[in-house]
Request: fold
Amino acid sequence: MPSLEKKVALVTGAGGRVGAAICHRLSREGAFVIAADLNFDSASKVAEQLRQGRAGVLPIQLDVTDQLQWRSAVAETLRVASGLDILVNNAGVAHIKSLEAMSVDKWNADINVNLNGAFLGIKESLNAMRESAKRSPSGASIINIASVSALVGSPGMPAYSASKGAPSSVPRFRGRHCAFAGEAH
Reply:
């Protein structure tokens, strides 16, 4: 991984195991990390661990299903760090039920966090990332964390499998969208 000195990364689901590991790696590579999680205490614990290594970090509470919270998160990122170079859509939930036993509410909860949360993150971050990309020869990056469940399906996890598969197609769309708009991607 190239050095991420002077880069700003916003990581969702930062309080979980995978999100925390992503935050630690980005921090080791020199990025200023925005550790975002629905559970602010979890995000704060990760931030405290990073601060012990003298890393630049800001914990924030973020419900990825709430567009206004995304706007606030991006605004706070720009206020504190003056840019946004990397978005890691990592937040995820999995309600484990068979298809027959899964309620529509649980199905929608998985879709809202895993798919719609990634969509909202991209939508609300894209302008800030475009501005950051103009100032950097390495551009900006959007990383959507998927799952092998998206490819093979997981018993008892129909909504999770479906919702983790869809974000993997977003980079292809975004790349074509930006190419069509005359932007590098």
